[in-house]
Design brief:
Layout: E1 3-9, H1 14-19, H2 29-37, E2 42-45, H3 47-50, H4 55-63, E3 70-74, E4 84-85, H5 91-96, E5 106-107, H6 114-133, E6 137-143, H7 152-164, E7 170-173, H8 185-194, E8 197-203, E9 223-227, H9 242-245, H10 252-256, H11 259-269, E10 271-276, H12 283-295
Parallel strand pairs: 1-2, 1-10, 2-3, 3-6, 6-7, 7-8, 8-9, 9-10
Antiparallel strand pairs: 4-5
Length: 329
């Protein structure tokens, strides 16, 4: 069987920090990353979706992780078709093209001149090269929005992303079920294999327009699986915060469903990256540790606290009184 590595997205998430997962003495970004990477050997950089990492960011991430550590990197929101805050564009781009960028609260690629787009792709390539040179680059994850449907134009855009970053491993996550429905599944998988793009397999609430089935398909190496939680009450609720949408703690039975699937993926791909994105308190690290134990053949470790997170209530504040509970290993 190939190698399965397990980690989380956003190891510095404020609710994870507040949960007490990190000891009180571990109170710096560098210290938290060192602590995290002593327990897990992969992490997903969520921040790169929101802004371009600075040189200092890169140094922090690369210098405070072991040599065999791996980072998956989320592609910048502008390149996945999401509305991108104008202020999230690098300052150099905003200043250089000040008279040629439409100054809207949120921008898309068509609001920028082609030269600016070219520079942003080049910056993405330089970031990837920095991780690759350190031997720590996993996959660059392009997570496309729910309005990105199967069709010639979107397939062509995905091919262009592949061509922009030819030396690196890319993964594609869809957020609308039509890509993997009975009509499109075969052609979608064939296309991704032909482009050497990994399909991001997901665990998420089912029964919605945006739901994708919990497949264990491998279209390129490494195989990628992201666990988004199963908080159906908040999944397509408008105005809900990420902290509410992904507020979920998997139980042992739910994780066990994936054990044979992950082993099959590892056999086919040689390597699988499993990322927990259920970013609420210490839920992702607890579930990651549980799944690691299951895959190693041991029993699931005792939960850090009894019970599951409170049921989601749309009217509840993001920070529920008394939550998150303290972490006690």
């Amino acid at each position: 069987m190939g190698k399965i590595v397990i980690g989380i997205s956003a190891w510095a998430d404020r609710s994870l920090v507040a949960s007490g997962f990190y000891p009180a003495a571990v109170n710096t970004p560098a210290g938290r990353l060192r602590y995290y990477s002593a327990q897990f050997n992969v992490a997903e950089i969520d921040a790169s979706y929101h802004y371009f990492p600075t040189r200092r960011n890169l140094e922090l991430w690369l210098e405070n992780t072991p040599g065999d550590f791996t980072f998956d990197i989320r592609a910048f929101s502008l390149f996945t078709g999401h509305p991108t805050p104008y202020t999230s564009l690098p300052r150099g781009i905003r200043e250089k093209y000040a008279d040629r960028i439409e100054k809207k609260a949120s921008v898309y690629q068509h609001h920028l001149p082609p030269e600016a787009i070219e520079e942003l792709w080049e910056a993405t390539g330089r970031t990837a090269e920095a991780f690759a040179a350190a031997g720590k680059l996993g996959a660059i994850v392009f997570q496309f929005p729910p309005w990105f449907h199967p069709g010639p134009d979107n397939l062509e855009y995905i091919k262009q992303c592949r061509e922009r970053l030819p030396r690196h491993r890319l993964a594609v996550e869809f957020r609308v079920g039509t890509w993997l429905d009975d009509t499109h599944r075969e052609s979608t998988l064939k296309f991704l294999k032909g482009q050497e793009l990994a399909l991001v397999c997901v665990d998420e609430p089912q029964g919605f327009r945006t739901s994708l089935p919990p497949l264990g398909e491998v279209t390129a190496s490494p195989g990628i699986v992201r666990f988004h939680g199963r908080n159906a009450a908040a999944w397509e609720l408008k105005g809900v915060s990420p902290g509410e949408k992904f507020r979920y703690l998997y139980d042992e039975t739910e994780l066990q469903e994936w054990v044979p699937r992950l082993k099959g993926m590892a056999e086919a791909a040689g390597a699988v990256h499993v990322i927990f994105t259920n970013k609420y308190a210490d839920s992702p690290v607890r579930n990651a540790l549980q799944l690691k134990e299951m895959l190693s053949g041991g029993s699931s470790p005792k939960p850090a606290f009894s019970g599951r997170p409170e049921p989601f209530e749309p009217s509840a504040a993001w920070r529920t009184p008394g939550w998150p509970p303290r972490y006690s290993p």
